[in-house]
Design goal:
This protein is an alpha+beta fold and 208 residues long. 60% of the residues lie in helices and 21% in strands. Strand 2 and strand 3 (140-151) form a beta hairpin.
């Protein structure tokens, strides 16, 4: 009888673990997304003078969910092996900053009380999953899927697919075209210059 009880407990514990792992990708997308939406809706951040504070808070939340190193690696695909260690580090820094500038600006400028509905998740393997959601904007529904992997005891987003268009593949096509003609250093310089211009433009806007 004692062995049977131990076996039953072990079986139930194993089911519980599978259930928790199965839930985890959805939870670790849903929680930061809902936090970011709450910041966008928070009246404390209303007014141009509060935009920078709001921007920084959203960025803190986003970093909890996205694996920017893996996104960077996948964005250059096979060309990654042509980068030396210093180039890899600098590319991750500059590309991450580009994503920050591009998408947080879009969130702050284009968010109009849209609702995000999470539909579920597909477990691709023990360490890969896709979380499915859709954005409700009036009568329009925009499908958005998050590709995730399990790393350092946590699920991280490494790609976002919006209406069938992959963020990573979009940049991969751009970078492939550039790297066919230019060196990794030149690509990094392009990103750096773009980020510096964005920073100058933001500073000028704040000063007006």
């Amino acid at each position: 009888m004692k062995k049977a009880i131990i076996a039953l407990i072990t079986f139930l514990f194993s089911i519980s673990n599978v259930y928790e792992i199965g839930r985890q990708p959805l939870d670790q997308v849903k929680i930061p997304i809902e936090k970011a939406i709450a910041v966008l809706k928070n009246p404390e951040y209303m007014g141009e003078e509060k935009k920078e504070m709001q921007r920084e808070r959203i960025w803190e939340i986003v970093q909890e969910a996205f694996d920017f190193k893996l996104i960077s690696i996948r964005a250059v695909a096979r060309s990654w092996r042509n980068f030396d260690k210093k180039q890899k580090e600098e590319f991750v820094v500059q590309f991450t900053e580009l994503l920050r500038n591009t998408y947080i600006d879009k969130l702050q400028g284009e968010f109009h009380d849209e609702e995000v509905l999470f539909l579920g998740q597909d477990m691709i393997s023990e360490d890969k999953a896709v979380v499915k959601s859709k954005i409700l904007r009036g009568n329009v529904e925009i499908p958005m899927d998050y590709s995730m992997h399990f790393h350092d005891n946590k699920w991280w987003i490494y790609d976002v697919n919006i209406e069938g268009v992959s963020l990573v593949k979009n940049y991969r096509n751009q970078f492939k075209s550039i790297l066919a003609k230019e060196s990794p250093d030149q690509l990094i310089l392009r990103l750096k210059e773009k980020n510096e211009k964005h920073e100058r433009d933001r500073t000028l806007t704040q000063e007006k």
